[in-house]
Amino acid sequence: METSVIDQVRATEFASTATYLNTSSCGLLPRRAAEAVRTLTDQCAAGVRGGAGSFDSVDAARAGFARIAGVTPARVAVGGSVAAHVGIVAASLPSGAEVLAPAGEFSSVVSPFAVRGDLRMRYVPLDGLADAVRPGTALVAFSAVQSADGRVADLDAVRTAAAAHGARTLLDASQSAGWLPLDAGAYDYTVTAGFKFLLSPRGSSFMTVTEEAQETLPALYAGWVAAEDRWGSTYGPVGKLAAEARRFDVAVAFLAYHGAERSLELLAEVGVDAVHAHATGLAARFREGLASAGHEAVPGTSAIVAVPGLGGREPDLAAAGVMVSARAGNLRAAFHLYNTEADVDRALEVLSG
Predict the structure, then answer these.
(1) Which domain holds residue 82?
(2) What total of structural domains would you count in the chain?
């Protein structure tokens, strides 16, 4: 059953005329976020403000993500991409360290480790990830929800296995944060792209780091924005980096963060638990409809539904105004707070036709 707040948000914040089931690729911007970006764009074009944006918005977005992640803002660093955040973690590992990851994991999660050339990369099936952790494993890097097919990792099992063998954990929440409750404090590091289920402009991303893990990371992109005193550190080497996770900040695109501030505000108003119930309910309806039509979806309770071998239907759906994606041969549909049962039924209608 849809909650009144979701109905209200859908009516006031989203204007899409398409059947949009492609949040796994890019989420829709709420009206308030789009307005914030337009306002800053107009101000920059008119030259009516100093600089290109406000760190107040950056720090408000940091706090907004911290609320969703269940940590304090002191544990959150900001940047522009998941790969940049993962690169900091990759730079912290000693030569020869073993990094364990699921086979077929998203490139940004594993490539920063792989390109070093002196780390031992080991890939195993997702459902065997916890069992594959061993005493020599330095880090387990994995997504909470797989991009290619929407499978949800056994988060408790992986954390337990990593702790038992002294391995650190890096969780990518890009396909989950915003619809799946996140306890970022349970992992040494989390990385999250803002432009999917967080409904923020592309160019916003977040990394969380435990206090202990902060001591092991290099300030790889250290610049004045990562200084304890930003405006007092604009010339010469930074004298003192920020005492908290902000010292791992990468210089940001202000337009993205002016929008992210408002998008994360909206998600806080709705609540991730409400989004989870709504989105997974629609996904279940879609799986049931697919089964009735003879199409077997990847099983599970994810808000992302993938149908193996059906990726070739993506152009047909797009032509009919139903936006999905094709990944690794799968037809992939993702459900979020702006979707309705009518969206599910429209996608099934086009597929059956």
Answers:
(1) 55-269
(2) 2
Q: What is the pLDDT of residues 288-307, one digit of tens each?
A: 999 999 999 999 999 999 99
Would you say residue 3 has pLDDT above 80?
no
Q: Which residues contact residue 107 at a Cβ distance below 8 angstroms, ignoring those fewer than 6 apart?
A: none
pLDDT for residue 156 is more than 50: yes
Q: How many CB atoms lie within 10 A of CB 104?
A: 15
* Residue 2: band (very low, low, confident or very high) from pLDDT cuts 50, 70, 90: very low
pLDDT above 70: residue 50 = no
pLDDT on residue 15: 87
Chain length of the chain:
353
Q: What is the pLDDT of residue 52?
A: 85
Q: Which residues contact 301 (CB under 8 A, 6 or more apart)?
A: 152, 280, 283, 284
Q: Are 144 and 122 in contact (CB under 8 A)?
A: no
Judge if 310 and 201 occupy the same domain: no
∠ Cα 28 32 33 (to 5°): 55
pLDDT tens digits for range 29-47: 999 999 999 999 999 999 9
Distance CA 37, CA 257 (A): 9
| Within a domain: 307 | yes
Contact 304, 333 (CB under 8 A): yes
Question: Taking each helix axis from N to C terminus, what angle separates 341-352 and 272-292, rounded to the nearest 10 degrees?
Answer: 20
What CATH number is associated with residue 14? 3.90.1150.10
Q: Which of 310, 304, 347 is nearest to 326 (CA)?
A: 310
Q: How confident is the model over 268-291, as pLDDT tens digits?
A: 999 999 999 999 999 999 999 999
- Which helix (H) or strand (E) segment holds residue 161: the answer is helix 155-165
- Of 269, 303, 322, the residue that ends a domain is 269
- Cβ within 8 Å of residue 182, ≥6 positions away: 68, 69, 70, 144, 173, 176, 190, 272
| Rounded Cα–Cα distance for residues 45 and 322 (Å) | 36
Same domain, yes or no: 240 and 293: no
Task: Give the residue from 213, 240, 269 where a domain finishes.
Answer: 269
66: domain CATH number is 3.40.640.10
